[in-house]
Amino acid sequence: MKKVLIITYYWVPSGGSGVQRWVKFVKYLRDFGWEPIIYAPENADYPVVDDSFKTDLPENLTVIRRPIFEPYKFYRHFTGKKNKAIQTGFVSDTHQKSWKERLSGWLRGNIFIPDPRIFWLRTSRKFLKRYLHKNPVDLIVTTGPPHSVHLIGHRLKKHYPHIPWMADFRDPWTSVYYYKDLQTGKIADFLHHQMEASIVEKADLVLVVSDRMKREYQSFKHRKIAVIPNGFDADDFQKTETSGNSDSHFVIAHTGLLTANQNPTILWKVLRALSEEYTEFKQDLKIQLIGNVDASVVENIQLHGLQDRLEMIPYVPHSKAIEFQQKSSILLLCLIENPDTKCIVTGKLFEYMRAGRPIISIGYTDGDAADILIQTRTGDTFDFYDERLLKEKILTYYRDYQAGTLHLQADKEAIAQHSRKNLTKKLSRLMNQLVEKESLPSLGHVRNSANRHRPHPTA
């Protein structure tokens, strides 16, 4: 069985979206002839913890852990956010930033390059050089963010040029939506772009999660770029399978992190208008937010007089989140109003699709997430300011809910392509081609077969 060393910052017991992609790949890699070896920090400052992912790990998995220094303790002390989870480095997602938050953001972009986990680079490089000398592997994988992890792979490639290296970008680097908030000066901006270009050009294969990301990275000299999106694990749904909405209310549910930048103000306006026009709608409505929610979102809901229709549920294990998804009437996907987010396709989208409930996405109608909803017939995307169409769609869903006919007529075959096991099979083919020094002729999106039959949007 071939061996792959996977270098990742996020690993069990980390919760949230960052850990799921490679935990699920690792779960199925042995089925396709690959033995995974994990290298991760032993004392990482994870935003959330979720031990439930331990059940996904194969038996006798080799996990190597090494200490990491992170400056987040000092950041929390400096800004007074001693108990706040850190999601995007020192970048605050609040609209009104204090001078301490602005200074911290500047330090993040200009001193901690490419990110605050950079201190793990030197010790990891030294350790892994010795490890690989005694324990050879067939392939090295790095996954970011944090993109400092890719620098470890870059250094190892210099010492072991014969070992293929795959750099997996779950999010973009310099084109990510919050990059401008780093306030980088000319020197820092140059270094960020130089590092990114070096990673993309030196890796034997660059893996990205969406078509738009692929087009962005094709501007670099390196052309070996493949798209394998995030997905859903069928096993997660077999454990919690339900027959649809089991709540007595018309439930609009969102699971996972909901930041200030994701606040769907258009939705709250529409729900208020419908509540004022239809008494029964307000009585039946339940807004269910499961996970960490920014205070500004709650304030906005209260501003629109919907506080008595709101149910707040703190972070729950992944399996429980899936239960909430399946029991909802409608699932809510909130994207950030920034053109740089058009390439963002989160793992949550695919779990929503598998949950079998209609999806309402507030975002860009020409983004990659919108394309996937069209291809799978699992929901609709509404522009950040298109109140009329959004109102019509929610009212249609509500009438169907009243009649007991709120069902999703999805393309099950298109959805099935996004199962974690199917995606791991496609990943293993790319890995085999790298190891066998074959050309990589099929670097397009794994959904290419679905693209031939794209239905028209319903809204």
Task: Outline the structure in words.
This protein has 2 domains: 2-231 and 421-448, Glycogen Phosphorylase B (Rossmann fold), CATH 3.40.50.2000; 234-412, Rossmann fold. The strands form 2 sheets. Strands 3-2-1-4-5-6-7 form a 7-stranded parallel beta sheet, sandwiched between helices. It is built from 18 helices and 13 strands. Helix content is 41%, strand content 15%. It is an alpha/beta fold. The longest helix has 17 residues, at 186-202. The termini are far apart.
Brief summary of the model shown:
The protein has helices spanning 17-29, 72-79, 99-110, 120-134, 148-159, 186-202, 211-217, 234-238, 265-277, 279-284, 295-303, 318-327, 347-355, 368-376, 387-403, 412-416, 420-435, 448-451, and strands spanning 2-8, 34-41, 62-66, 139-144, 165-169, 205-208, 225-227, 250-255, 285-290, 310-313, 330-334, 359-362, 379-382. The protein has 459 residues and is α/β, with parallel strands linked by helices.
Question: Main attributes?
Answer:
seven-stranded parallel sheet; disordered C terminus; 13 strands; Rossmann fold; 15% strand; 459 residues; alpha/beta
* β-sheet strand percentage: 5-15%
Mean pLDDT: 88
Terminal CA distance reads: 49 Å
Fraction in helix: 40-55%
What general form does the structure show?
globular
Strand order of the largest sheet: 3-2-1-4-5-6-7
Provide the number of structural domains: 2
Class by alpha and beta content: alpha/beta
**Corresponding CATH architecture of the largest domain:** 3-Layer(aba) Sandwich
- Tell me the Rg in angstroms: 22 Å
- Say what the CATH topology of the largest domain is: Rossmann fold
